[in-house]
Design goal:
The complex is a heterodimer of chains A (about 325) and B (about 475).
Chain A lengths: L1 H9 L4 H58 L12 H6 L5 E3 L3 E4 L2 E4 L3 H4 L58 H14 L1 H4 L18 E3 L6 E3 L3 H8 L30 H6 L11 H23 L2 H18 L3
Antiparallel strand pairs in A: 1-2, 2-3, 4-5
Chain B lengths: L17 H8 L2 H17 L5 H6 L11 E3 L5 E2 L4 H8 L3 E4 L5 E3 L4 E3 L2 H7 L3 H7 L5 H14 L20 H11 L2 H8 L14 H12 L11 H10 L11 H15 L14 H6 L1 E9 L5 E8 L1 E5 L1 H8 L11 H9 L2 E3 L5 E2 L5 E2 L2 E9 L3 E7 L1 E3 L4 E3 L9 E3 L18 E12 L4 E9 L2 E6 L2 E5 L1 H6 L2 E8 L2 H4 L2
Parallel strand pairs in B: 8-13
Antiparallel strand pairs in B: 1-2, 1-3, 3-4, 4-5, 6-7, 6-12, 9-12, 10-11, 13-21, 14-15, 16-17, 17-18, 17-21, 18-19, 19-20
Helix pairs in contact in B: 8-12, 10-11, 10-12
Pfam families (chain B): UCH
GO biological process, one term (chain B): protein deubiquitination
GO molecular function (chain B): cysteine-type deubiquitinase activity
Chain lengths: ~325, ~475
């Protein structure tokens, strides 16, 4: 105590307070400085690229115009087709185009002035269309500045409950009709306002729900809802007869790396039934016919195992139906 | 940041501003001198390592950023810059924190493409490889590439979900984190595995290549199902096959193994030092050294590893015992520390050759000998008692970037380039539910944006949300490949 008192005495009053204040001040300054510097950097580089892209586009248009002009004078000896960089570079000789923010001079682009002042729009360097700066729907959405214009498809991500980053509602299963209706009602009430604005996203997005697509099994010629594909493939490859004894948990993984060829002798069992799991193509029809009885039997124990009997049964039924209808899809 | 942010050289201005152009466009010597000075000052302003500042504390009078004059190295604060320029005519300064160039004539920071490339961490290697390549040549190349390759259309990149095909979320999360890996993207989109040339039956590599192509086709926004990959996986592993839930970590190991097996020129034995791409990307080496407590004889063995399986239990127990206070959350660093810390072995498991092959007590320690470019870490969230296995719930703190140097075989090495050991988080897989049944989803980074992939549902999330997740698998990427390959 005495020591610290002694040391503070030697300093004038308020030194520590001043020092603390200065350090805090400096630290906050730096934090804000860094954030602003990053935003500045990102923005200025984007504007620089926009200015360059605009100038380059003009330059290339000018070059094309000249080329077509000379081609008209019957000199097709220099077919400056894209593909040959040398020729393309040559076609830029003596071309100088000046835009508001940059100068295109013989294939090179120089900045003119500060792009933060000269260039107002962010242009995508790849597709040369203007970029949208705000999402078109959901939180923080703003309508595009010019609805009639085409914008770069690389848009800010949309964040909207029940919708993905593209602004599409989550896919729903055909079977969940009740839930679907509820969602639908909600959507129509909430999304009236943004639905009028975006030209890029389909306006029907609010009213039309997205269903899980139907996919073709790569192993056999039938079609299924994508959510039921694994279940089908299990049978299609003739695996389900032997799933019963094994319940693997993550706990097993500690030492055991998956070991292929651990129980190959079980496969021939299925083969004996006549439905070859490898799906030899001439056997297509036979496979179709014998599928159902085989498929139904082993699904029984798995129902019990999973403990979700009504759901599974419904799903299995639905699968059988879709197997029947599937060919039409 | 480790991501494929490909920027076309054609969209870059020749110089950062008109005033910089005047200097750099002039004769070779002026431009060269300017660049040399820039690099020198740039290097001197490098943030110093902690131990250096500790040994020789510097007195700093201002904390605020200083602007160092490029011509005479005089540091100025924000207000004095103008006076200095009026007095001396020096126009350019380097700001001390971000080390960007400030042009007094523009009154603004300028970002020159050439100088930015010069100062990037990979510049020294790049300049060795291509010392004479300038921007013009680079843009020649680019025109060539543009005219001879398929261009990826503009879209919201990397924002496609994968449909759950029925208990296949274990596959989806691993695939999704691979689809967002910049190294694998470069490999597969660069046609390094060509399905039409591949003769392997049921090749998993082909199926993954197909998925990469589909994922990046860009035309569609909705999800898709990785049907062929599922089928190829089931066909090549009977353990994974069948309509049932699987462990995502196991699937990851399977996939890496199969991808490795599908490349041309790979070697089966891991000891041989396989030169193939997947080996370099995924496989590291663990060194286990066992020291005999009696005679001090050290036995070292090195094993290949494709991931680090970290015990969470020890961390959780420590917490329960109040070792570091009850409020602390276990950390990834803590897990890594206990993973690499010495461990006592009982006498019955180790026979010391130094003591004539008699069983001895010994100390075992694991260290990372070689780090892969894609580092997967599994947090073992299971607890085994005599008959029951349980999942350990709860958060384990993990960082956005991690320095792996302390866990390698030479943790105290001062000379090494630190960037060779810096890893950035690229994906975090979360498991919800119980051990034997549950659901996986994954957070992936696309550029600077994080997204949550819950099968086909893709939503944007913040970095804070990712860090709050109860991760099961973490994927880290080496920050700088150039530094790593040295």
């Amino acid at each position: 105590m005495g020591d610290s008192n002694g040391s503070t005495k030697s300093l004038p009053n308020g030194t520590i307070a001043k020092l603390t204040c200065d350090i805090l001040d400096g630290t906050f300054y730096n934090i804000i400085h860094d954030i602003v510097a990053k935003v500045h950097r990102d923005e200025k580089i984007a504007r620089m690229r926009s200015a360059v892209t605009i100038a380059r586009q003009r330059g290339e248009e000018e070059a094309r115009r000249l080329r077509e002009g000379t081609a008209g004078k019957a000199t097709p000896a220099v077919p400056a087709k894209p593909g040959d960089p040398e020729a393309e570079a040559q076609s830029f000789t003596n071309i100088r185009v000046e835009t508001e923010g940059a100068i295109f001079d013989e294939g090179k682009v120089y900045l003119k002035g500060n792009p933060l002042k000269t260039t107002k729009e962010i242009i995508c360097p790849d597709c040369r269309l203007p970029r949208l700066l705000y999402p078109v729907a959901g939180i923080g959405a703003r309508p595009p500045p010019d609805p009639s214009r085409e914008y770069c498809q690389r848009q800010p991500l949309i964040s909207k409950p029940g919708h993905d980053v593209h602004g599409n509602p989550f896919a729903v299963d055909k079977t969940q009709t009740k839930k679907k209706k509820k969602d639908k009602d909600k959507e129509t009430t909430t999304s009236n306002t943004p639905a009028s604005s975006p030209p890029g996203t389909p306006e029907s997005g609010a009213s039309k729900e997205i269903l899980f697509p139907t996919v073709k099994c790569p192993n056999c010629p039938r079609y299924f809802g994508v959510t039921r594909f694994a279940m089908h493939l299990d049978r299609c490859m003739g695996l389900s007869s032997r799933g019963t004894g094994r319940t693997r948990t993550p706990a097993d993984s500690g030492s055991a790396t998956p070991n292929p060829a651990s129980n190959p002798p079980k496969r021939p069992l299925v083969d004996e039934d006549g439905s070859s799991p490898s799906g030899v193509f001439p056997k297509k029809k036979k496979l179709n016919g014998s599928k159902k009885p085989i498929g139904k039997k082993p699904s029984l124990p798995s129902k019990l195992k999973n403990g979700t009997t009504p759901d599974m049964a419904a799903a299995a039924d639905a699968e059988i139906k879709s197997e029947a209808v599937g060919e039409d899809n | 940041m480790a991501s494929v942010t490909y920027i076309s050289a054609l969209s870059e201005a020749e110089y950062g501003c008109e005033h910089l152009a005047a200097v750099l466009k002039g004769d070779e010597t002026t431009a060269g001198q300017f660049k040399d000075r820039f690099m020198k000052i740039h290097k001197s302003l490098e943030p110093q390592l902690k131990n250096v500042t500790a040994s020789a504390p510097k007195t700093a009078f201002v904390l605020k950023p200083k602007y160092t004059c490029l011509a005479c190295s005089e540091p100025c604060v924000n207000g004095d810059r103008k006076i200095h320029t009026e007095k001396t005519g020096h126009q350019f300064y380097i700001e001390g924190r971000t080390r960007s160039i400030f042009c007094q004539m523009c009154g603004d920071f300028v970002y020159d493409y050439g100088l930015e490339r010069l100062r990037s961490p990979t510049a020294s290697v790049v300049s060795q490889v291509s010392s004479k390549r300038d921007l013009t040549e680079a843009s020649y190349d680019e025109v060539y590439v543009r005219n001879n390759a398929n261009k990826r259309p503009c879209s919201k990149q990397g924002a496609r979900g994968l449909y759950n095909m029925g208990q296949t979320c274990y596959l989806n999360v691993i695939l999704q984190s691979m689809l967002h890996d910049p190294i694998l993207n470069t490999y597969f989109l660069g046609n390094s595995h060509q399905p039409h040339d591949c003769s392997l039956p049921d090749c998993v590599g082909c199926a993954v290549a197909e998925t990469f192509a589909e994922f990046n086709s860009g035309e569609k926004a909705e999800g898709f199902g990785a049907l062929n990959l599922l089928m190829a996986s089931w066909k090549s592993s009977s353990a994974l096959a069948g309509y049932q839930q699987q462990d995502a970590h196991e699937y990851y190991q399977f996939l890496v193994d199969k991808l490795h097996a599908s490349t041309d020129g790979h070697l089966e034995g891991h000891e041989m030092g396989c030169p193939c791409f997947f080996h370099k990307a995924f496989y590291g080496k663990l060194r286990s050294s066992v020291t005999c407590d009696k005679c001090g004889n050290v036995t070292r063995t090195e094993d290949p590893m494709i991931d680090l399986s970290l015990d969470v239990q020890i961390q959780a127990k420590k917490r329960a015992m109040g070792g570091t206070g009850p409020s602390t959350v276990p950390t990834l660093n803590g897990c890594l520390e206990s993973f690499t810390s010495p461990e006592k072995l009982m006498a019955d498991v180790y026979n010391c050759s130094g003591c004539g092959g008699t069983p001895q007590k010994a100390t075992k320690q694991l260290r990372i000998k070689k780090l892969p470019a894609i580092l997967c870490m599994q947090l073992k969230r299971f607890e085994h008692t005599f008959s029951v296995s349980e999942k350990v719930e709860g958060r384990i703190d993990f960082p956005m970037s991690i320095n792996m140097l302390p866990f390698t075989t030479n943790p105290n090495c001062q000379k090494v380039d630190k960037s060779r050991y810096m890893y950035d988080l690229s994906s975090a897989v979360v498991h919800k539910g119980k051990l034997d049944a549950g659901h996986y989803y994954v957070y992936c980074r696309q550029g600077d944006q994080w997204m949550l992939f819950n099968d086909d549902q893709v939503t944007a999330v913040t970095e804070a949300e990712v860090l709050k997740a109860d991760a099961y698998l973490l994927f880290y990427n080496l920050r700088s490949l150039f530094a790593g390959s040295k």
